[in-house]
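YM 10:42: NADPH:quinone reductase sequence, as discussed on the call
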Amino acid sequence: MRVVVYSESGPSSVLSLVERPEPQPGPGEVRVRLHRAGVNPTDWKMRTGATSPGDFPEVAPGQDGAGVVEAVGEEVDALSVGQRVWVFCAQHGRPYGTAAEQLVLPASRAVPLPDDASFDLGASLGVPAMTAHRALTSGETPSRLGPGSLAGQVVLVAGGAGAVGNAAIQLAVWSGAIVVTTVSSPEKAALATAAGAQHVVDYRTEDVAARVREVAADGVDLVVEVAPADNLALDLDLVRNRATIAFYANNGGAEATLPLRPTFGKNVRLQGVLLYLLSEEMLQAGALDVTAAVEAGALRVGEEAGVPLHHFPLAETAAAHDAVEAGAVGKVLLDLA
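YM 10:58: structure's back
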């Protein structure tokens, strides 16, 4: 099989396309013939050494993808040969991820993909949608998402044109929330609106606090935050009593100053979100809810959903990494079929 690998940390030039033997699934594993792979910031950060991909002599990057099961190992009952699946956390704890034509991974990381869902959509789920799911379920209620589960709640999504922000908008709207999101340009405002956000605020030209209070006079129930170093003080000012601020990145700075009285005075919960270290129960709940949202047509990709798609062949994985590192808006995908 063809696979893109690296054996040392560095720029995208350390990536190389090689041939490796067809992998065989062991007990509890499946082999997937990948059609698409999603590229996420975590992929280039691991490649550069900013975070660790694991202690392996050779690594194929990529956590997300979609394809068809072509072999199952012993003790696998939930999946069968020929079944379409989307995969997540594929490279976590393992040397080979989704920048490959074939992939062996635990069956629990391969989820049936609804028949009318494209491989583009399947490969775009994983990190963004599962991270968004955990952020949206990290408050007092609910522990699962679905129609009505966030009814009456106001959710503030920082950076609504980003991959996680877009997924959070779509999942929150599907669950009945009123969504306010911040963006940095009219172009990104159009994408956030296409994702379904009812209120979009350009933080470069508008008063965010005033605009949010027009929607949530009593305060926001939940914040999905990408830049806590920049936004924590504003978030604390805008949330209601017993609200949650869920943050999944450190855009804008590696440290944030926490004003104590505004935090404990409102019983605010600060929830960090890192997909790879969630419990198995949380991961499976997220996979079920994300798939249900796909089945309902609530999770979408493409320009009309606020997620422009950028396709690269497997041989140009380095260019795909560079595009994500440069801040490509939308979803970068590898074509593998």
